[in-house]
């Protein structure tokens, strides 16, 4: 009798182990199958970026003539790679920015919360919200974003860079004296108070000055720049800031914070943190 009890016990332990193993391995198998089945990564990007488009998209947008304008092509391709892509976002804040609900709930840098009054004021003075007449009428613009690494030196790419309709530069990226390598055209210079060029003679004559606001203070700073008031108090900035920007109000823009929101939460997968910027994470802004 005692012997039988032992047998039962051993049998049931074996059985439990067997079931447990089956359960565990099937879970692993199904997990593996699931991982393999997903075509997209955690952020929602297509895993296999081989650059081919579905036939449908190719027919719809792919005018294969060299240099042909392909309206909607870039957006279609982006949507194929990244289905969450939302192209309905103006680059700069304009008078309708409050209708763009995605930015109303977050303070800077992800939105405009509590900054509406100062933004209304700024927009009423800048009065321009596009790239400028000459560019706004082009239906198919080419654009290049210049990084600030030294890799361009001695590459003689200046002429090629200038061939783009829109040339975007960031912060203090120098142009004067480096035209052969980096080009001489600047359509937009996107920056923030601590990153902005401080030497007035380093500003190019033709370019839009675009604020990418990281904190509430940055909008106040822009107001000083727009109204050409001397900035005396620089409390609240983490390093010295430009005190004068030699651009007319009509040449100043505010970058839509939606792009920072989208880049941070969707593209990079930044921790959401209730829409507050974590200390020391993005604290410095881009270099
Ligand atoms: C493709 O582009 C060429 C060059 O711009 C243009 O002449 C042609 O009409 C375009 N074809 C279609 C189907 O849009
Ligand atoms: C660029 O070219 C100049 C002239 O040939 C040379 O003196 C300089 O060292 C080069 N700079 C780099 C970073 O290669």
Automatic annotation (TrEMBL):
<keyword id="KW-0333">Golgi apparatus</keyword>
<dbReference type="InterPro" id="IPR012163">
    <property type="entry name" value="Sialyl_trans"/>
</dbReference>
<dbReference type="GO" id="GO:0008373">
    <property type="term" value="F:sialyltransferase activity"/>
</dbReference>
<keyword id="KW-0325">Glycoprotein</keyword>
<dbReference type="GO" id="GO:0000139">
    <property type="term" value="C:Golgi membrane"/>
</dbReference>
<dbReference type="InterPro" id="IPR051142">
    <property type="entry name" value="Glycosyltransferase_29"/>
</dbReference>
<keyword id="KW-0808">Transferase</keyword>
<dbReference type="Pfam" id="PF00777">
    <property type="entry name" value="Glyco_transf_29"/>
</dbReference>
<keyword id="KW-0735">Signal-anchor</keyword>
<feature type="transmembrane region" description="Helical">
    <location>
        <begin position="6"/>
        <end position="24"/>
    </location>
</feature>
<comment type="similarity">
    <text>Belongs to the glycosyltransferase 29 family.</text>
</comment>
<keyword id="KW-0328">Glycosyltransferase</keyword>
<dbReference type="InterPro" id="IPR001675">
    <property type="entry name" value="Glyco_trans_29"/>
</dbReference>
<keyword id="KW-1133">Transmembrane helix</keyword>
<dbReference type="InterPro" id="IPR038578">
    <property type="entry name" value="GT29-like_sf"/>
</dbReference>
<keyword id="KW-0472">Membrane</keyword>
<protein>
    <submittedName>
        <fullName>ST3 beta-galactoside alpha-2,3-sialyltransferase 3a isoform X6</fullName>
    </submittedName>
</protein>
<keyword id="KW-0812">Transmembrane</keyword>
């Amino acid at each position: 009798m005692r012997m039988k009890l032992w047998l039962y016990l051993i049998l049931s332990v074996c059985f439990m182990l067997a079931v447990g193993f089956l359960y565990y391995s099937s879970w692993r198998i199904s997990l593996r199958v699931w991982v393999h089945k997903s075509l997209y990564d955690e952020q929602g990007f297509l895993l296999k970026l081989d650059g081919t488009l579905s036939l449908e998209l190719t027919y719809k947008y792919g005018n294969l003539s060299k240099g042909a304008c392909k309206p909607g092509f870039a957006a279609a391709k982006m949507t194929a790679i990244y289905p969450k892509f939302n192209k309905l976002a103006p680059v700069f804040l304009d008078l309708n920015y409050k209708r763009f609900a995605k930015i109303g709930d977050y303070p800077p840098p992800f939105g405009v919360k509590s900054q509406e009054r100062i933004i209304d004021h700024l927009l009423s003075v800048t009065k321009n919200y596009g790239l400028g007449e000459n560019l706004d009428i082009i239906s198919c613009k080419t654009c290049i974003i210049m990084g600030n690494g030294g890799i361009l030196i001695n590459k003689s790419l200046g002429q090629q860079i200038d061939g783009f309709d829109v040339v975007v530069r960031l912060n203090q990226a120098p142009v004067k004296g480096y035209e052969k390598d980096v080009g001489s055209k600047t359509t937009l210079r996107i920056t923030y108070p601590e990153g902005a060029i401080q030497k007035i003679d380093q500003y190019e004559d033709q370019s839009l000055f675009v604020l990418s606001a990281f904190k509430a203070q940055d909008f106040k700073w822009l107001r000083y720049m727009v109204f050409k008031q001397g900035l005396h108090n620089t409390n609240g900035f983490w390093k010295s800031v430009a005190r004068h920007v030699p651009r007319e109000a009509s040449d100043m823009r505010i970058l839509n914070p939606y792009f920072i929101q989208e880049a941070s939460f969707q593209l990079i997968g930044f921790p959401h943190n209730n829409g507050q910027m974590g200390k020391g994470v993005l604290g410095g802004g881009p270099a």
